Amino acid sequence: MKNIDVIGIGNALVDQEFEVSEAFLQQHKIEKGMMALIEEDEQNKLIAELSKLGELKKQCGGGSAANSLVAFAQFGGKAFYCCKVANDEAGQFYRQDLEQVGIRTNLEQQKNVGITGRCLVMVTPDAERTMRTHLGITADLSTTELDEEAIAAADYLYIEGYLITSEIARGAITKAKQVARDNGTKLVVTCSDPAMVKYFRDGIDLILDGGVDLLFCNREEAQLLTGEDDAEAAAKALLEKAGTVAITLGKDGALVIDNERQVYIPGVKVDAVDTNGAGDMFAGAMLYGMTQGMTLADAGRLASHAAAELVTEFGARLSKERQQQLLERLFNQ
After folding, report:
1. pTM of this prediction?
2. Beta bridge partner(s), residue 186
3. What is the DSSP letter of 143?
4. What is the pLDDT of residue 333?
5. 318 close to 309: Cβ distance less than 8 angstroms
6. CATH number of the structural domain spanning residue 76
7. Predicted pLDDT at 58
8. What are the residues facing 18 on neighbouring strands?
9. Would you give the end-to-end CA distance of the chain in angstroms?
């Protein structure tokens, strides 16, 4: 019996956000707009440099799939998350953070020795986010952390692209996909970051092998995946890998396409200060709409408005109150 709407597998990271200038990124030879993995010592040095710029803007639980599931759960969906944290203060914070919004996890039984992962998010004045991540123990996410019963009991399995940087996690992806297919659980993939497609293309191909039911990507990721500059052409090419494709287009909205429909989702004009997590929010909101029986157009509209709300403040998550107000404003007027 299906009693979970969406189960996700992904990295468990504590996000820390800082405001930086373009000059800061250039000075430290940091490629803007990309996520890169770094060692703990390098991350600590970067934190020291960032601390000189001013106060930490925001700290919260993070990870691409986790952000999407938080959005999904706060709209009212039933979610479960498979991930890995250490038995340290950050790991306890992370577990409680998810449970407080109603997400079931596999973390209560974990007593792992090590360090919980951390992601430094640097936001430039144009609201673009650049990330430097030390995965810590989440790099060792494996089949051990999968809850196969929960995967079988879910309508959707949501897999984040960031996992492909770890060989062990690739094994977990392959196993999770097989369990999903054996139990009629639909497969959903998010590319997570252009760097995943640019530098780990074989991993993205592994996730998409055999086809998926729904693929989320942004314009740059779609271009890298297909070689097509036009979003519509890229979306049609990606239908060879996914039953439905959703391409986010920043301020221009999004394009959602399947073999029967092609829906343009209008952008929502806002003053953006931080784009961190916008794609995660879009995916979580759209999945909520789809599990509630919304049309692609309505689910996409909810997703577009939710992402637009998110970028008006720092951080990759909205409060539950704001999400519920958004639902009321869009659909219960």
Report:
1. 0.90
2. 156
3. G
4. 58
5. yes
6. 3.40.1190.20
7. 81
8. 122
9. 34
Adjacency order of strands within the sheet including 242-248: 104-105, 79-82, 4-9, 154-160, 186-190, 212-218, 242-248, 254-258, 262-265
- What are the pLDDT digits (tens) for 220-242? 999 999 999 999 999 999 999 99
DSSP state of 267: P
Cα–Cα distance, 162 to 216 (Å, whole number): 13
Domain total of the chain: 1
Distance CA 54, CA 163 (A): 32
d(CA 145, CA 151): 12
Q: pLDDT per residue over 279-305, tens digit each?
A: 999 999 999 999 999 999 999 999 999
Residue 136 bridge partners (DSSP): 116
DSSP 16-44: EEEE--HHHHHHTT--TT-EEE--HHHHH
Residue-wise pLDDT for 141-174, tens only, equals 999 999 999 999 999 999 999 999 999 999 999 9
Burial 54-74 (b: 16+ CB within 10 A, else e): eeebbebbbbbbbbbbbbbbb
Domain span holding position 117: 4-331
Q: Compute the distance between CA of residue 327 and CA of residue 333 in angstroms, rounded to an integer.
A: 10
Question: How many Cβ atoms from other residues are within 10 Å of residue 126's Cβ?
Answer: 11
Mean pLDDT of all residues in the chain? 94
Give the mean pLDDT of 17-41. Answer: 93
Task: Show the beta-strand stretches assigned E in the chain.
Answer: 4-9, 13-19, 35-37, 58-62, 79-82, 104-105, 116-123, 129-136, 154-160, 186-190, 212-218, 242-248, 254-258, 262-265
C-alpha angle with apex 221: 316 to 211, nearest 5 degrees? Answer: 105
> Could you tell me whether strands 4-9 and 186-190 are parallel, antiparallel, or unpaired per DSSP bridges?
unpaired
